């Protein structure tokens, strides 16, 4: 979706809120960096692509947003956390990358190596 006005942005925000609330389930958490650096790099479009792909593949996941993750040069950043596994951060994510992340990692537990920029143990 191309954003051409403030009204387009408001509409996308409301649609995204509804979709995020509908997806706030499942054993997988997806976090999209929505700081100003992420937004400037295309995080809104990535978030929309994630919500669309989850719906398309009928995958349940908790989708949330966060502020700056701290690696501005790698934005847009997307974290994927599966229960009992390390949290993986994907960098320079484009909407076209989202199907691979959803199918490979979210659904099947396979890290998309060429997009992964960090791995964290949950405490």
Whole-number radius of gyration?
14 Å
In total, the number of domains comes to 1
CATH topology grouping: Glutaredoxin
Q: Mind summarizing the main beta sheet?
A: 5 strands, mixed
The H-level CATH homologous superfamily, spelled out, is Glutaredoxin
CATH architecture: 3-Layer(aba) Sandwich
Order of helices and strands: HEHHEEEHE
Spatially, the strands of the biggest sheet line up as 2-1-3-4-5
CATH class: Alpha Beta
- Average pLDDT works out at 88
List the main descriptive attributes of the protein structure presented here.
single chain, 123 residues, Glutaredoxin, five-stranded mixed beta sheet, 5 strands, 20% strand
Give a structural overview.
This protein is α+β, with helices and mostly antiparallel strands. It has a single domain, classed as Glutaredoxin. The protein is about 40% helix and about 20% strand. The chain contains four helices and five strands, in the order H-E-H-H-E-E-E-H-E. The chain has helices at about 5-20, 35-40, 45-55, 100-105; strands spanning about 30-35, 60-65, 80, 85-90, 115-120. A five-stranded mixed beta sheet has the order 2-1-3-4-5, with helices on one face. A hairpin with a 4-residue loop joins strand 3 and strand 4 (about 85-90). Helix 3 crosses helix 4. The protein is globular and about 40 Å long. The relative contact order is 0.18. The mean pLDDT is about 90.
